[in-house]
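Weekly modeling sync, notes
Attendees: S.R. (lead), two postdocs, one rotation student

Agenda item 3: backlog of single-chain predictions. S.R. asked that every request posted to the team notebook include the full sequence so nobody has to chase files. The rotation student volunteered to paste the first one in as an example of the format we agreed on. Action items at the bottom.

Example entry:
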Amino acid sequence: MKRDKLIGILLMIVAFSAMLGLGLIAVFIFLEGLPIIGKVGVWDFVFSAQWYPAEGKFGILSMIVGSLFVTAGAILIGLVFGLGCAIVLTQFCPRKLVSVIKPSIELLAGIPSVVYGFMGVLILVPVIRDYLGGPGLSVLASSIVLGIMVLPTVTSISVDALQAVPRSFYEGSIAIGATRWQTTWMVMLKGARSGIVAAFILGMGRAVGETMAVIMVAGNTISMPGSILDPVRTLTSNIALEMSYSAGDHRKALFATGVVLFIIIMILNTIALWVSRKRVWKGPRR
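Predicted structure, as returned to the notebook:
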């Protein structure tokens, strides 16, 4: 009994240590970044697109918009293809083929992000430039690269979520005359909703926080994107590119950028968790 209690205490300490680490990081970022936000003003910092550190102008609106554009595109690509792969692997694919395809998709998670960026620069950027126009380094290139990067996360978690739905749900739906697709759409996806939302949240976090691949294919132009073919700079790219030579208010502004990024991620995660508790898939009316 004492041993079980001791193990429980140790596990509780481990759990709270993770929360403590997150809290310390948040406190450090806020302490470093909030003073410059107060000095410049929240409105001028968040809703201005003028980023000229040498002149004391620290407006990050263009980078916020760029980050949201790139993240939205990546999540759209990753969720569509990732969830589609998960549905095929769990509902329509032979088990022998699943044992080959699923590990292959999961191996994508082990490829360094710089490799994705390198392949994007060599292959994707020239294709976009030659066939769609623009410089090639763009929101579209960043979204596609990030979409491929979040694909294994979304697919793996969605597969586990769909496999966790009791088999009796599937068999019962088939028994009353529903087709395999109707059963997948109305029963399996509904039962796996929380896991799919978890996959969406993790994929979104990976897309928002990715730096190296985005730096290589986004173009890193500090301007408001007018289309998906325009170059863009994200919040994470801005921090990575300028932290090495920043000082004074410039350095504090980069920490403040981290504060805004932290808040954006928290807002997006809160919205996703709220949506997961809503009844998205409604059954037929009686």
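Discussion: group reviewed the output briefly. Residues 2-40 form the longest helix (39 residues).
Action items: rotation student to repeat for the remaining queue; S.R. to check formatting next week.
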